[in-house]
User: Fold Stage 0 sporulation protein A homolog from Butyrivibrio fibrisolvens.
Amino acid sequence: MILTECKILLVDDEKKILEINKKLLSDSGFSNIITCEHACGADEVITDKAIDLVVLDIMLPDMNGLSLYEMWKKRGINVPVIFLSARDEETSRLKGLGLGADDYVTKPYTPEELLLRIKAVLRRTYHLTENKVVEMGTVKVDLSSGIVYRPEGQMELTAKEFTLFTKLYDNQGKIVSINALMDTLWPDGSFGLENSLVVHIRRLREKIEETPSDPKHLQTVRGLGYRLSVGGKS
Assistant:
């Protein structure tokens, strides 16, 4: 099974949020998505179906999400869970993660942030890849191996280059700010590393661009950040 084949259960009492999150996942290639607006419905789904990941709102009308998850744990249902909550209380965060939850996202959040969290939990839990090859002219990047295929041969992306490319690819066609890229490469602190980011961008271009000095895919948006535009995916 590849990452986008995972079955995901979205539980939130706000119908609009469910629609946004379902579309977010659908647009990213996920096809097995179930939505519920109540805890009782979510409990029926989790009992009857093999769910790979639950995105669970804490503030549900019929039962607290933390209580629902605790009930699942007592019944031996060990599905990965990402909690959503409008409350930014440290006690809720610690309780949720203390129960064994895999992540916790506080509202409001960006759709891109939630998507990255979902993919990260699935990759970490099931050791999955997206099994995608990104095509950019005569250059191809295999996301499952981090190998770049060029007409003259192949080369591997470094860990930083792969992280950088994945961040840009997950937001393809959109501007990704310099700060967002730096925080992705150096989550423990990126102050003063702007020049290092520029170096990584240059080296990444040398591997994925047909003509690195005249980039067509990894574009600089002056004063804002960078944007990746790609061709087909297989």
Notes: Helices lie at 15-27, 39-48, 65-74, 90-98, 111-126, 159-170, 178-185, 194-208. The domain at 133-228 is CATH 1.10.10.10 (Arc Repressor Mutant, subunit A). Residues 152 and 206 are 13 Å apart (CA to CA).
